[in-house]
Design a protein that fits this description.
elongated; single chain; Rossmann fold
């Protein structure tokens, strides 16, 4: 009875040792890290352009700006489904803290000066992505709208065009990746050549103020009040224009043919 008991104890000890060896070989590191004194493995050589561009392309801060339905797709990036914070894109509500302007949606002539003002308040270097067909060419409004701007590049310089109606959030990621490649290839010495030499539209133009044709004064006119009073069945006041209209005889309906 002693021999089987000793054999079972030895087998149990072997199984525990084998289990420890298995755990050490699968869960532990391959080997202890070795500290080397080689210069090539302890010093990183780079250029000022590379490290500067790497810092900028990893922290593009877009402006929270949208004018139409394309902004719904842009706003979806903020949620956890797409999470564009992993690209270093932190949305900012102030143009003085943003360096990326994604024009999401239709730009009208009334919104044009506000858009240009936001762009001019952004610090250099700054980039613009034209998102959607309405932003690039006017889209469906380019045929019959009198107020839609036929391309935002008539107002501000555009770095990247993103077609679609509207583009999906994945397309915005692709546009940001292409913009990051452009930022990574820039050089500090050539920054002056990359700046726009002229602008299509500025708020310093000497614009001529023109009075609006439709000013809403007809709503307060005496004739309009009389028409509303007549439609409501109220008595007409015999003063001013009311007296002139009251003196005009009412028109009688034309007799029927053959009467």
């Amino acid at each position: 009875m002693t021999l089987p008991t000793a054999q079972s104890g030895m087998a149990e000890a072997l199984s525990v040792a084998a289990l420890k060896d298995l755990r050490a070989s699968t869960c532990g590191p391959v080997a202890a890290p070795q500290i080397t004194s080689d210069l090539s493995e302890n010093v990183i050589l780079t250029t000022l352009d590379d490290i500067h561009n790497w810092a900028r392309l990893s922290s593009l801060w877009p402006l929270l700006y949208g004018t139409a339905c394309c902004f719904i797709e842009f706003a979806a990036l903020i949620g956890s489904r797409f999470d564009f914070d992993r690209f270093g894109l932190v949305p900012r509500s102030s143009p003085r803290q943003a360096d990326l302007l994604i024009v999401a949606g239709t730009v009208t002539m009334k919104m044009g000066p506000a858009l240009v003002r936001l762009y001019e308040q952004m610090p250099e270097p700054k980039y613009v992505i034209a998102m959607g067909a309405c932003t690039i060419t006017g889209g469906m409004f380019s045929a019959d709208s009198t107020t839609a701007v036929r391309g935002v590049d008539k107002l501000i310089p555009v770095d990247l065009y993103l077609p679609g109606c509207p583009p999906r959030p994945e397309a915005i990621f692709d546009a940001v990746i292409k913009l990051r490649k452009k930022v990574g290839n820039e050089a500090l010495a050539e920054r002056g050549n990359l700046l726009p030499s002229h602008r299509y539209f500025t708020i310093s133009h000497q614009l001529k103020a023109v009075e609006p044709i439709v000013n809403g004064q007809y709503l307060g006119a005496e004739t309009q009040k009389l028409a509303l009073a007549a439609a409501a069945g109220l008595p007409l006041a015999a003063t001013g224009e009311s007296a002139q209209l009251a003196s005009v005889p009412a028109t009688t309906p034309a007799p029927a043919p053959g009467a």
